[in-house]
Amino acid sequence: MKQLSRIFSRNVVGYILVISSGAALVPLNSRAQQANLCLDGFCIGQSIKEARFDQVAWITPRKDLAKEKCDGIGCKPEIAFRGYPSEDQAKLSDAVSWKYVATTEDYNIVSKENLGVLRLYKYECNASARGIRGERRFFGAYLSTPSQYLTVVGLRLINGSLTVYRVARQYPYHNPHELASLAKELKIQYGGRLLLFDGISSNAYYEVIEQRKDAWFGRSTVFNPSDLSNNAAELVLIDPNTRALLEPTSMPESGEIRLSP
User: What pLDDT was estimated at residue 61?
Assistant: First the structure.
């Protein structure tokens, strides 16, 4: 899907799923404190176990989806998922072996088929599958109703449950006035927590950290009047509790958690 690939390839929205193990130690504020950092019923700090995840038609990419082959001892279900009930070990192993590999980073996906087993995912003993000091990154993508906006929900392990820590939505627009109107609506919704960009910015993550914001909105493509389907802007919500750990860099790999000293 062209839209799905673009939402990861753009420097701005490509940040939403970058994660490392150090951030798992940062406690989340209560849902009440983050209640207004939500989009379409998905909120920062929301657990995958909540009913909202059952109400979405999750998109499973047709392309760039591959099953990871791992023959090492650490990949065996009884090793990687030691401590889980034996009937769940194989299911979990299969669920996390499917990856979206369209970018330089691999992501595990949330789908209708694996949602139930991912709700059991609390830890994994196989560190090699996650990378050194790393942690698996998960995303679920869907088309909002009735607008059909592409929305991506990023999750990571927090307190033994996959939890929302990024939400991004891609908005098509047909002219600059329509884009300005959309920015005004989002500003009303998120207030001072939202950072607005007049144009495309590769420094979005740096700016959102420096200015202590919790979300940003800006163009992801240059306005193209000859191809209205190629005009897109993106809203990204982030977890404020990880902001202090994030490395403020304008490189495409931005959003990495700093390594512990």
Answer: 84
Neighbours of 62 (CB within 10 A): 8
Task: Count Cβ atoms within 10 A of the Cβ of residue 254 and give its class: 0-12 exposed, 13-18 middle, 19 or more buried.
Answer: buried
Give dist(CA 6, CA 72) in Å, integer: 34
Q: Are 258 and 247 in contact (CB under 8 A)?
A: yes
Domain ranges of the chain: 2-243
Please, which residues have CB within 8 angstroms of residue 29's CB and are 6 or more apart in sequence?
45, 240, 241
The pTM of the full predicted model, rounded to 2 decimals, is 0.80
Comparing C-alpha atoms, which of 205, 257, 261, 206 is closest to residue 18? 257
How do residues 130-188 score in pLDDT, each as one tens digit? Answer: 665 567 889 999 999 888 899 999 998 888 999 998 999 999 888 888 889 999 999 99
Query: Span 223-250, mean pLDDT?
Result: 72
DSSP symbols for 99-151: EE-SSSS-EEE--TTTHHHHTT----S-GGGT-TT----EEEEEE-TTT--EE
